[in-house]
Automatic annotation (TrEMBL):
Domain of life: Bacteria
Name the record gives this protein: Extracellular deoxyribonuclease Xds
Annotated Gene3D superfamilies: Endonuclease/exonuclease/phosphatase
High-level lineage: Bacteria, Pseudomonadati, Pseudomonadota, Gammaproteobacteria, Vibrionales
Length: 343
């Protein structure tokens, strides 16, 4: 059984569950085939026949896995990354439990305890990405993207977030671990332009999340030519960039960092993505129970001039709303009422 999805938290059942697949990792049906095609449907059916959910028999707090108590806890070499990890395509063996069937899937309710020794690493971690076979040409330009998974600094001395509460680390210790893991990953990417997703939308001042991330990153780079700057946005169109500026109105946003030694920032573009606004939904007393608004996150698309040539490059960094977001569908031709349904 191969790990097809590492732990995710089921808020309804209050359990962390993992998904295994027989003999191989389950690919999304649309990875290779057109959505809705016969091939995609066949892939979906084959996935369901191979799939097994693994979870605890009793509820647990978010982040707590009763049958794997050491998961994500150790960091012996203090490099910001745990030794008790799980990777997609790992083989899991020696686990015991009770088989059940619910919500259309087979489930193993674990009664034993496991550790990292229960996993075979079919695709071991590498110190840096395995790229093209030919040697890396320093004259080339490397562009990458990275999701920092709710990197929030406002609870830890950063500038205030005007668009929502903290979605990141719940305490300073967790934040320091999160930050170090992000920094080590970015260093190993060794990219000249990096698009960031899920960074806190708390401006471009000295205490903004993106400024802090870049400062910490540069502190770990010895060669000055390899250091980074970040793209700032004058959202107020007043010619002055400060901590109140933002990209969009969500608590998180997209960002771009780059090496001035490789490219020169020429223009900053913010593209407003389409959004849906429907009529309000009222209860029998006329009270608004749904405001009818469904937003998208804006796209940050800076244009650079590549140094050593005349070429320009525009990098568009998107972070679309999750598939769990809802859409509006009209219930009555009068358009006075609407209801929400899954997209």
């Amino acid at each position: 059984m191969r790990v097809s999805r590492t732990f995710g938290y089921d808020y309804s059942a209050r359990r962390n569950n993992m998904v295994l697949a027989h003999e191989r990792v389950n690919l999304h049906p649309n990875q290779k085939y057109v959505a809705g095609s016969d091939e995609a449907k066949a892939q979906s059916e084959d996935n369901s026949l191979r799939r097994l959910f693994v979870e605890s028999p009793t509820p647990a707090a978010n982040g707590v896995v009763p049958y794997y108590p050491e998961f994500g806890r150790s960091d012996v070499d203090q490099d910001g990354s745990t030794e008790d990890y799980i990777r997609i395509n790992d083989t899991l063996f020696g686990i015991e439990g009770v088989i059940g069937y619910s919500y259309g899937d087979y489930r193993l309710y674990v009664t034993s305890t496991i550790s990292k020794d229960n996993f075979v690493r079919n695709t071991p971690r590498t110190e840096q990405p395995n790229l093209a076979e030919q040697p890396w040409n320093k004259k080339d330009l490397r562009v990458a993207t990275f999701n920092v998974l709710n990197y929030f600094t406002s609870p830890f001395g950063g500038d205030e977030n005007r668009f929502g509460s903290n979605r990141g680390a719940s305490n300073l210790g967790e934040f320091e671990v999160q930050q170090e893991k992000i920094l080590q990953a970015l260093l190993r990417l060794d990219a000249d332009i990096i698009g960031l997703m899920e960074i806190e939308n708390n401006g471009f001042g000295d205490n903004g999340a993106i400024a802090q991330l870049v400062n910490e990153l540069n502190a770990r780079v010895d060669n000055r030519k390899q250091r980074y700057e970040f793209v700032s946005v004058d959202s107020n169109q007043d010619g002055v960039i400060d901590a109140l500026d933002a990209v969009g109105t969500d608590a998180i946003t997209t960002g771009v960092i780059y090496r001035p030694s490789k490219v020169k920032l020429k223009q900053v573009n913010v593209i407003e993505m389409p959004r849906q606004v429907a009529p309000e939904v009222l209860d029998d007393d006329g009270k608004v129970i749904e405001d009818g608004k469904n937003y998208q996150r804006n796209t940050l698309a800076p244009t650079f001039k590549v140094k050593g040539g005349k070429e320009k490059l525009t990098v568009a960094v998107n972070h679309f709303k999750s598939k769990g977001s809802k859409c509006w569908k009209m219930r009555h031709p009068s358009r006075r009422w609407a209801r929400r349904s899954r997209c």
